[in-house]
Backbone:
């Protein structure tokens, strides 16, 4: 099984064609739902009393919710606006609400979880939580500009506590204060990450391990409507794939990255979680095969 910890949110997403208000989002929500296509996934997260029942029912359909807490107060809220190319997003609001003082605990059943994903979330909470597991074989974390700007040292400490970091290019640059992505990765490896995966939006990703670099392309798409959660879906797919194989060997990690690219491509084709929730049976495998065919030469 896989355990995912991180934000569950009500998002306002402004795209050039459409604005979605207070829809189900959150880094952990996207990651866990993406992962659940590969393996049983438990979600540790918090929401407020305003969290709609329909969203609770929806996540319950896909995820184990023993670690999901509802508390008095408002759910974490995020408000972001894309430019007309859909490639840049400005954060208009981040309201931590009930997640601010969340003291998560790991349900007894999850303690033996060998695969743990710390999705984008308060880095102090993330670093604390990982110590509560008994036998972690592979852990990975993500972060976002909000945490780099407000808690940079805690982000670095979190990176020390995991095996892998998955982060997008802009954030890697902001965090390490380097521009070249190889230099960024080396810096994060210096801090203690064995694997660094730098996501480059529609252009795919670079995976670094030791002196190995594994570049992958994004799955080419003609129609993108909402990139929100693509990175989280990428990371969730990676972790879900590895947990399903119970493997951490390099060739499986490379395959996991390819599955990350493929799941990211489903996420951006529809608004909000729509792309992940409407994946038809067999279509993940089909896209992975298409991907393999495309890059072979
Ligand atoms: P992505 O598009 O992969 O960057 O992920 C977007 C998701 O991350 C949204 O659903 C947000 O609710 C969530 N999110 C945005 N900012 C933060 C933050 N500071 N901490 C945790 N989650 C966040």
Residues:
């Amino acid at each position: 099984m896989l355990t995912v910890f991180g934000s569950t949110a009500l998002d306002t997403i402004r795209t050039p064609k459409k604005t979605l208000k207070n829809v189900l989002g959150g880094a952990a929500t996207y990651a866990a739902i993406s992962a659940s296509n590969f393996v049983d996934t438990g979600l540790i997260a918090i929401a407020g009393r305003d969290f709609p029942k329909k969203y609770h029912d929806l996540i319950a359909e896909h995820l184990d919710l023993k670690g999901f807490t509802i508390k008095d107060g408002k759910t974490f809220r995020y408000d972001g606006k894309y430019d007309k190319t859909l490639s840049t997003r400005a954060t208009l609001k981040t309201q931590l609400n009930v997640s601010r003082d969340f003291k998560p605990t790991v349900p007894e059943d999850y303690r033996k979880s060998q695969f743990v994903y710390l999705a984008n979330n308060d880095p102090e909470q993330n670093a604390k939580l990982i110590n509560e597991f008994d036998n972690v074989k592979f852990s990975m974390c993500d972060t976002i500009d909000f945490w780099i700007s407000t808690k940079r040292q805690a982000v670095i400490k979190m990176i020390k506590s995991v095996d892998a970091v998955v982060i997008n290019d802009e954030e890697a640059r902001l965090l390490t204060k380097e521009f070249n992505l190889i230099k960024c990765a080396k810096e994060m490896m210096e801090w203690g990450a064995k694997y660094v995966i730098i996501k480059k939006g529609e252009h795919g990703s670079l995976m670094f391990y030791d002196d190995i670099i594994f570049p992958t392309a994004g799955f080419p798409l003609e129609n993108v409507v909402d990139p929100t959660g693509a990175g989280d879906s990428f990371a969730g797919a990676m972790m879900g794939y590895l947990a399903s194989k119970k493997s951490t060997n390099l060739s499986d990690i490379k395959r996991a990255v390819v599955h990350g690219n493929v799941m990211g491509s489903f996420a951006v084709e529809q608004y909000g979680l729509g792309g992940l929730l409407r994946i038809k049976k067999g279509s993940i495998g089909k896209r992975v095969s298409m991907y393999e065919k495309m890059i072979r030469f």
The chain has one domain: 2-295.
